[in-house]
Design goal:
three-stranded antiparallel sheet, four-stranded parallel sheet, Uracil-DNA Glycosylase, subunit E
Length: 180
Amino acid sequence: MRKSALQPLVYNDSRILILGTMPGEKSIQLQQYYGNRGNRFWKIMFEVFDETFSTDYDVRKELLKKKKIALWNVLESCEREGSQDQKIKNEKANDFPAFFETFPNIKFVFFESKTAAKFYMRHTLYKVGVQYSTLPSTSGLNAGSSHEEKVAEWKQVAAASNNVTLETNTVTGELSGFLT
């Protein structure tokens, strides 16, 4: 069955873009990013910014706006049974050149999983002047990292939001930060 992604949740002053692969069934049904309660995305975001957790979607969106964070997905549409990225077929990517032209303040892109990064690399080119990093998936199915390990990695988003420049280690490919 062909599925379409959500519209981007983005603000004119967004500096950070977090990219998932394709919303799951529950998110599409609710028309809310990370709408499945089993996904840890919102809990991690509130934790890395030291904010009180909320289940109210408007409060969640306000946190992103305050921190200049946009959410979107790599794929515009695909065929998929269920919610698992491994079942994606016949995908169509979003128009990233047009997105970056419309929102030129985006300087950091964080992939919400290795799969999101893989689909991005398959369908589009990296934009010069934008720093990219792949974070561990917040999916409840990702048992490869503990909650604490995920939070530690996701603190890169808070660092970027707080005007920290992330540098890529040319040997390991990992990002490290320093204040600008």
